[in-house]
Amino acid sequence: MSSATLSTKRLRFERLCRENVPLAEYYELVGAEPNPTAEAELRYIPREPVETMGGAADRLDEFEEQWEARERAEYALRPREGEDGAGELAGTAGLVLAWDRSLAKLAVRLRKRFWGRLLGRARRRAAGARVRPTRSRLRRRPGPRGQRPLEARRREVR
Predict the structure, then answer these.
(1) Is 153 exposed, middle or buried (0-12, 13-18, 19+ CB in 10 A)?
(2) How many CB atoms lie within 10 A of CB 77?
């Protein structure tokens, strides 16, 4: 799959697996009982907090299986040295891959105490960015798998 470790100026992304994230630490993030802000953190993510340590283990196992099957790349987010909460599990970020549709969905979950801090500049840049697709991208002919032209797929997404 993709790289197991990535980094930015403020964050370190590590593959979300038992080797990199202890089960107890992951449960503190995703469990309903140890994390009272879990519901708010998942407001826009179609996932519920887990009820037990076993539920957290099952979710980690699922992510590991999806990584190996090249269906999902899930990362643990940790602030880098010099940042508040350095080394702590601040959240997760994942790409859900749909190879047959040439599509990847991004999901980012941060603990509430990190909101507005670690991704602030990136969020402001993204809000001000305008994407201007080129005509060649818009008028792409169907691929060998019979894919519809890009403009037809864009209408479906909106």
Answers:
(1) middle
(2) 25
CB 76 within 8 A of CB 88: no
| Higher pLDDT pick, 121 / 70 | 70
Task: Answer yes or no: are the C-beta atoms of 97 and 28 closer than 8 Å.
Answer: no
What angle (nearest 5°) sits at the alpha carbon of residue 56, between those of residues 43 and 22? 115
- Please, are residues 112 and 100 in contact by the beta-carbon 8 Å criterion? no
Strand partners, 38: none
CB 29 within 8 Å of CB 19: no
Residue 133 CB neighbours (<10 A): 10
Give pLDDT, residue 143: 47
Which pLDDT tens digit goes with each residue over 46-55?
Answer: 888 889 999 9
Q: Which domains does the chain have, with CATH numbers?
A: 5-118 (3.40.630.30)
